[in-house]
Amino acid sequence: MVGFTILNIYWIIFVLTFHGQLITSTQVNKYLLSLNQSNNSFNVGLLMVKRYRKDAVRFDLVHIGPAIDIAREKCLNYYDINLNINQGYYEDTCKEREAIGQAYDLLEKYKGNLVGFIGPACSNDLQAVSQLAAYKKIPILTGLGDIIPIHRSDLTSLIRLSYDMRDKARAILAFLDYFKWKIFGLVFRFGDVYYNTLADVLLKLLKLPKYSHFKCNCRETYFRDFDKVIITDIDKVLQRMTTCSRIIIILGGDKDVRTILLKAHHQGMTQGEYVFIYPELIEAEALGNMSWSRGVACNQTSID
């Protein structure tokens, strides 16, 4: 999933000062001149988990806070705009009730003097808060929000820097279309809202006339235990895949994909007869580690 970057946060906060309107550089200059003659301080609500205790650990205040601080300094130094960041924090993990409660408290506290919200990152939390923001006609900006099932037009004040699942599913089909691969198989992690939603959206697109030439010949799921270890017999999953398609889309975490590809390699499926498509980023790439090898004595196989 796409997170915040320093540049993204900077532009998020900058856009907030203009209430989400698209404006020209001339209008910006006029607006900044007017600020020199009036109050140039704006209240912004920051809705975010303080520190995640599980999952999505990259999108909490501990990780995103420094970028917001840098963006706030840039707005002040470059545009003489002072952004008062008002806390709407909550604990541990995604909580719709806490997110919308914090948003409501900030709206009540500032009584029309809140120019917008940043966050939350969690899609369920964001969906709840963005409906309140749409009702109040207040901009709300996030770097995520990729799993929101309701129609975009219902969230009239939401600005997302992320794609949503329909965009991603269409991108997968566009990739297949480029290579004229019309038949494919699908393997995804069951019980994970992200991958389940993406699989569901992808399969629903096949019912549209535009994508009717595609066919998902087989669909398989796998399960993980609480320690994030795959407990499904992947060998059998792959054996069933060999009977229906040579194009296999995998929707799961990068560690899961490594396990699946090692199993595929042992079954002789990595000699060029099969194509494995993984539409996610490998998290370790951000750390500069591009190797599949993990240094385990009983598992020395490295797959390019």
Automatic annotation (TrEMBL):
Residue ranges crossing the lipid bilayer per the database entry: none
Receptor ligand binding region domain span: 76-277
Protein name: Receptor ligand binding region domain-containing protein
Pfam families (UniProt xref): ANF_receptor (PF01094)
Naturally occurring in which organism (per UniProt): Tetranychus urticae (Two-spotted spider mite)
Presence of keyword Membrane: yes
Molecular functions per Gene Ontology: peptide hormone binding; signaling receptor activity
CC annotations in GO: membrane
Subcellular location: Membrane
First-listed, main subcellular location of the protein, grouped into a coarse class: membrane
